[in-house]
Amino acid sequence: MSYMALKHLHLLTIVISLLLFVTRGGFALLGAQWIHRNWIRIPAHLNDTLLLLAALGLCYHLAQWPFYNSAWLTAKVVGLVAYILLGTIAIKRGKLWAFALSLVIFVYIGWVAVNKVPFPGF
Questions:
Q1: Residue 81 DSSP SS3
Q2: Is the pLDDT of residue 119 over 90?
Q3: Are 15 and 47 a contacting pair, CB within 8 Å?
Q4: Where does the sequence pass through the membrane (predicted)?
């Protein structure tokens, strides 16, 4: 798959992932139980898997790897882990603080992706 195809797939799956997270997180805050059912969880997990596969393809094309030769990719991976942990708390427990922090981290990951700098201001 070409670099541009992978990039567009990655961007599309990011948008879908964010929409699914905001929907599930918002309804979790309202106490909805249907968000824990397989028919809503499985598509979100499949999309996130496709997102990560596209990211790995981009790493291959760019010959840049987190924890090896790319500080900005390392920052994205660390941010991703924090986003997943906080997102899990937000959806499973309906915690507003975790939902808000996960969205802040999502914005940070996007900022790092655009600027290729791990820390704002450096």
A1: helix
A2: no
A3: no
A4: 12-32, 44-63, 69-89, 96-114
Q: What percent of the chain has pLDDT over 90?
A: 93
**Model confidence pLDDT, tens digit, residues 48-61:** 999 999 999 999 99
Angle (CA) 98-68-85 rounded to 5° is: 15
- Residue 122's pLDDT is what? 64
CB 79 within 8 A of CB 112: yes
The Cα 44–Cα 24 span in angstroms is: 10
Instruction: Give the DSSP letter string of 3-63.
Output: HHHHHHHHHHHHHHHHHHHHHHHHHHHTT-SGGGSHHHHHHHHHHHHHHHHHHHHHHHHHT
φ/ψ of residue 119, rounded to 5: -130, 130
Provide the pLDDT confidence category of residue 121 given band limits of 50, 70 and 90: confident
Tell me what pLDDT residue 48 has.
95
Tokens of 6: 């992978």
Contact 50, 15 (CB under 8 A): no
